[in-house]
Amino acid sequence: MAGLGTRVLQRGSSKPLIQIRKVPVVQWCLRGILSHLRSGDHVIAVTRRGTPVHAEIESLVRQFLEHNRITGAVTNTVVDQLPLGPAHSALIGLRCAEPDWPAVIVNPDQFCQFTFPDWSDPWDAFVPINFSASRERSYVTLVVESEHYLLNQFSEKRQQTPFVSVGIYGFRRGSRAIYCIEEAMRGKPHHNEEYFVAPSLEHLTRSGGSVWPTEVLAKYDLGDIKGLDQFETLVKAMQEQ
Question: Which of the chain's ends, N or C, has fewer CB atoms near its CB within 10 Å?
Answer without folding.
Answer: C
